[in-house]
Q: What sequence folds into this?
């Protein structure tokens, strides 16, 4: 065989060798891709598992907090009656009733989140998401309405509180009486706008004993010089303004917690739907 024949034979064999090399490289690439895909799926699954347990722990503490709030509300309702009831138009809004309502809502939301997360139950996760979304939207709407109608709300609350003074120390209004006594003692104030608000209530020049700078029985019948002069409504507003930063931080944290809860629930719900579709 001459040199030209050998070169030609090598030329014809080279495509076969290149094809084998390509097949081997292609197979290696496919194996690498499969391993990478499996690794990525494993990481995603681990993240979802971590997310599931984080949501469970978060809602467990949420549920326990709701139990505590409910317990305090029930204790107030049993021992103090309608404690902190100041409104005459909506008397059912008291500290006890508010705590009971908030505690029940928090417990229900926490329960749905706990069981829905640990069981990866689509119905419970969806119910948790919808309920939390309703609460979030309601809070946003309430905040916007309060900002827009702040002046009207301020006037209405002031007038409603003045009407509530007429029920002070009357039968069946122990909660209102206790609430005013605590407010006037702690804030060192008297009446809604000033101490003269009480004159119409008692039909004489008299204020409750909690208005006195130095408390004693029937001290509200003494000279006005011994009474607190500041208005309770303004005092409470000033207290809220002084604690505005704390209230703002609490509100922001509450919003962030709700947004995180909505995100977790939606992520787990979508994963549960995909899993059901895959295995169907």
A:
């Amino acid at each position: 065989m001459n040199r030209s024949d050998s070169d030609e034979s090598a030329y014809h064999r080279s495509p076969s060798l290149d094809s084998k090399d390509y097949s081997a490289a292609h197979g290696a690439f496919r194996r690498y891709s499969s391993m990478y895909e499996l690794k990525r799926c494993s990481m995603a699954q681990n993240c979802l598992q971590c997310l599931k347990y984080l949501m469970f722990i978060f809602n467990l503490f949420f549920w326990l907090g709701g139990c505590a709030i409910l317990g305090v509300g029930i204790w107030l309702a049993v021992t103090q009656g309608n404690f902190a009831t100041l409104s005459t138009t909506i008397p059912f809004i008291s500290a006890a009733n508010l705590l009971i309502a908030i505690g029940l809502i928090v417990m229900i939301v926490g329960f749905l989140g706990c069981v829905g997360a640990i069981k990866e139950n689509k119905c419970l996760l969806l119910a948790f998401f919808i309920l939390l979304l309703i609460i979030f939207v309601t809070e946003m709407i309430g905040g916007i309405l309060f900002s827009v109608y702040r002046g009207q709300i301020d006037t209405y609350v002031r007038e409603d509180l003045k009407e509530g003074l007429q029920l002070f120390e009357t039968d069946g209004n122990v909660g209102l009486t206790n609430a005013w006594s605590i407010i006037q003692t702690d804030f060192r104030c008297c009446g809604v706008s000033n101490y003269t608000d009480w004159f119409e209530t008692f039909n004489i020049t008299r204020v409750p004993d909690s208005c006195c700078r130095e408390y004693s029985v029937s001290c509200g019948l003494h000279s006005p010089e011994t009474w607190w002069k500041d208005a309770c409504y303004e005092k409470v507003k000033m207290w809220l303004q002084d604690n505005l930063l704390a209230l703002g931080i609490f509100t922001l944290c509450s919003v962030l917690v709700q947004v995180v809860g909505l995100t977790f629930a939606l992520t787990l719900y979508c994963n549960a739907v995909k899993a059901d579709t895959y295995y169907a």
The radius of gyration is 35 Å. Residues 122 and 273 are 7 Å apart (CA to CA).
